[in-house]
Design a protein that fits this description.
This protein is mainly alpha-helical and about 150 residues long. It has a domain at about 10-110: Arc Repressor Mutant, subunit A (Orthogonal Bundle), CATH 1.10.10. Helix content is about 65%, strand content about 10%.
Length: about 150
């Protein structure tokens, strides 16, 4: 039995504007982060570490939804830049603990301007930002739950 083909124009699809927004936000963020020698993904990892101070590869991987084959090179680059230290965990040598260096901590103050610059690019009200963030997390949770079924 042949299914009927239903064409849906790009501008009617939810994922297309999400894709375009993501590309543009990351492009703009990368331009802002150039002065700190960070990519957007490296910056997100640093923001996580500024909040947590220390972590491990597994927790970072789960939070960022990155597999270890993607995360490991990012962490190695951050370590090479002198921003983090990767150490074998005392509890489990298979797991690496990640901690900020003094340079990594010092960068927090300097790089804190990046999100503020991005807010100016986005030109959303605080309410719009809050609503968008809630919807984005709702979408993410729905998709994660769907994966479990």
């Amino acid at each position: 039995m042949k299914k009927d083909f239903v064409y849906m124009p790009l501008d009617k699809q939810l994922v297309f504007p999400l894709y375009l927004c993501t590309k543009e936000v990351i492009r703009r963020y990368n331009a802002v982060l150039e002065e700190f020698d960070l990519t957007y993904t490296q910056f997100v990892i640093m923001m996580y570490l500024w909040e947590k101070r220390t972590s491990n590869v597994k927790k970072i991987s789960e939070t960022m939804l990155l597999d270890s084959s993607t995360l490991t090179p990012l962490l190695k680059k951050l370590e090479k830049k002198g921003l983090i230290k990767r150490n074998k965990s005392l509890m489990d040598e298979r797991n690496l603990s990640i901690e900020l260096t003094k340079e990594g901590l010092d960068l927090q103050q300097k790089a804190s301007v990046a999100p503020m610059k991005m807010e100016k690019f986005c030109k959303l009200t605080k309410k719009d930002e809050e609503d968008f963030r809630k919807l984005a997390y709702k979408l993410l949770i729905n998709m994660k739950e769907d994966n479990k079924q």
